[in-house]
Amino acid sequence: MANPFQNLFKKIFPHKEEHSELRNYPIFKTLNSRELQFVYNCLHHREFKADEIIFEEGFPLEVIYFIESGEVELSSKKEPKTKLILKENDVFGLIDFFSGQKRRMTAKALSDTTLLAIADSDFEELINRQPSLGTKILWSCCQLMAKTIQEKTQVYN
Amino acid sequence: MNWNRIIFILLLLTLIVLGIIFYSPIFIYLIISIIVSYIFDPIVSWLEYKGMARWIAILCVYAVIAGLIAWLVITYIPRLIEQGNQLIKFISRTDVPLDQAIVQLPLVHSIYEFILKVDQTIPQLNLLPQFNQLIELGVQKLGELPQILLSNFQSIISTVALVFTIPFFSYFLLKDKRKIRQALVSLAPNKYFELTLILFNKVDENIGTYLRAILLEMINVGILSTIALTIVGVPYSIVIGAIAGLLNIIPYLGPWIGGFVAGFVILVSGLPPIMIVWMAMAILIVQFLDNYIFYPLIVGRTIRMHPLVVLMTVIAGSYFGGVIWMLISVPLVYMTYSLIMALHKNLKEFRII
Predict the structure, then answer these.
(1) Whole-structure pTM over 0.80, yes or no?
(2) Element of type H or E holding B58
(3) Domain boundaries in chain B?
(4) Which residue of A has its CA nearest to B345?
C-alpha cells in the first residue's frame, strides 16, 4: 500500500530519470542516474543516411559507436565472407578499443541510422577518473565478451 | 552544385563576417575567459568526479581564488607599489639631471673614465661622444617610462573593469564545456566527424596542459626569484621577481632578459658591481631548480622548441606588437605548431590528404 506522504512527495518533487534510455545498451545497464549523466556528457549524436560509410578499414581507432536506431553492416576486404549486421542497442568499435590501433572492418549504414558516438580518450577518462563507474563498465564489457565467446564456441562445436 | 546551396553558403559567410565585426570588441575578453577556464578546468572536473555539482564546484573554486587574490592584494601589492614608486622616483628625480646621475654611478663612471683615456691616447677614435649619446638615449627611454604608465591609465582602468566580466564568461564556459564541445562537433559533416572529434580532444588537451604549465611556471619562477634575490640583497626584489616570472613565458631567452633587468637595477641603484655576479648566480640557481626539479614535477613533460625558433619568434613578435606580443608570440606559435602537427597526422591517417 502506497504511503500517502510518499505520493504527495512524489507529486511535489516529480523524479524523472534522465538519460535512462542509455540503460538499453548492455555496457551501461548497471549505471545509476548520476553516472549516466557523466556518460551522456561525452556522447555525440550522429545521423547517417542509408549506404553512408561510417568508417573504413585501416582508419585509426578513435571512436566507439552505439546504435540508437537503424542497421549497420560491418565487413572486411581481407575476409569477404565475414559480414556482421548490427541492430538497435548494439555497440561496435568496443572490441577494437581493447585490442588494437586500427579499424579491422568497414562500417556502413544499411538504413537511415542514428548513432551515439564516444571518443575513446573520453571513454578511457570516464573509466579512469571514476573507479566505481569504470568497474561497472568494465564488468559489463567482460560479460558482453563472455557472452559473445560462448555463442561463437557453441556455433563451432 | 545547385544554386540554392551556393546562396545559402554565401548568406552564412556574410552572417559570420557580420558576427565577427559585431563581436570583435569582446574577443579579447573571450580569449582571456577561455584561458581562465582552461586553467580551472582540471580542479572543477576533479571536484565534479568527486560528486559535486559542476556549478557548485566552479563557485567553490572562485571563492578560493577570490580569497587568495584578496590575501595577495593585502600583503603583496603595497610593497610592490612602494618598490615601483621608488624606482620611478629615482628615474624621474629633478635635483640632478638623470644622465649626470647615471654618469656619477661608480661603474658607469669608471667606464666613462676608461673611454676618456682611450680617446686621449687615440685621438681619431671619438668614442666619448658616442658613449654620451648612448647614455642620453637610455635616459630618454627611462624618462618615458612613468609617462607610459600614466598615459595608459585609462587602459589600466578598463583592465580593472575587465576583471569583473571575465569570471562571468568563464563561469559559463566552464559549466557548459561539454555542451559547447558537443555543439561544435555536431557542426562537422559525417565524413569528418571522427577527425573533428579527435582533433578537438587533442588540441584541447595540448592547449590545456600548455596554459597550465605556463601559469604554474610563472608563479613558481616569480616566487623563487623573489626569494633568491631577497637573500642576495638586490633592491626591488619583488618587482624584479615578478618581471622574471612573467618573462619566463619565453623559453631560453626569458631568464636572460630577467637577469639583464636585475643587473640594470643593480647598476642604477649604485650598488657594488660584484652584486651582479651574486645576482647571476641566484638566477642560475633558480633556473636550475625550476628546470630540473619543479618543472618535471609540475608539468611532467617538456615542451620542445628549438632556441633558434624561439629567438626568431620573439624578435618577430616585438616588431609586430611590442612587449605584449613578445610574451604571447611564443605560446601562440607553439599552439599553432601543435595544432598543425595533430591535423597533419590525422588527415593522413584518415586518408584525406
Answers:
(1) no
(2) helix B54-75
(3) 25-75, 94-145
(4) A60
